């Protein structure tokens, strides 16, 4: 795969407005069939019981899996068709790393898995998703060509 494609995906991640608001401070790195998303936990990510809200778990897991799958597709934007999460333990702070890996590339669907690890390397959540090719060209997406 093309390293320039991976860099363009990283720029596309940065350009997405939701990432400025929902997971401010996140850093995405894309590799061949893999992606890593690092996020320092902020108070805004916590629910009333002072541990991380499930929406943040989902965002990290889905993005890591998505960009692992997208690393193998250089022409079209992918969509998440489905994603299943397994929560393992609560998170109250620290820095998390979500790791995604493309495990199957079919004609119409890509399957990727992802995990979130805390600073001690313990898995706090995992999941897997199915991603499908859209009709949208990556070259038309904000940030991809920046």
Structure description:
It is a single chain. This protein has 146 residues and is of the alpha+beta class. The chain has one domain (3-140): Thiol Ester Dehydrase, Chain A, CATH 3.10.129.10. The protein is built from three helices and six strands, in the order ααββαββββ. It has helices spanning 3-15, 17-21, 54-70, and strands at 27-31, 34-40, 76-87, 95-105, 109-117, 123-137. Strands 1-2-4-5-6-3 form a six-stranded antiparallel β-sheet. A hairpin with a 5-residue loop joins β5 and β6 (123-137).
| H/E topology pattern | HHEEHEEEE
Assigned CATH class: Alpha Beta
Question: What's the gyration radius in Å?
Answer: 15 Å
Tell me the helix content.
10-25%
Total individual domains? 1
């Amino acid at each position: 795969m093309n390293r320039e494609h991976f860099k363009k995906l990283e720029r596309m991640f940065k350009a997405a407005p939701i990432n400025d608001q929902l997971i401010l401070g996140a850093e995405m790195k894309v590799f061949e069939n893999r992606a890593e998303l690092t996020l320092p936990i902020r108070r805004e990510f916590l629910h009333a019981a002072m541990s991380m809200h499930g929406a943040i778990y989902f965002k990290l897991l889905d993005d890591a899996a998505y960009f692992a799958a997208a690393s193998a597709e250089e022409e079209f934007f992918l969509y998440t068709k489905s994603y299943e999460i397994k929560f393992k333990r609560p998170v109250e702070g620290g820095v998390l790393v979500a790791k995604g890996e493309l495990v199957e590339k079919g004609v119409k669907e890509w399957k990727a898995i992802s995990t979130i690890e805390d600073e001690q390397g313990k898995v706090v959540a995992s999941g897997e998703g199915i991603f499908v090719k859209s009709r949208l060209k990556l070259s038309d997406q904000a940030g991809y060509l920046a």
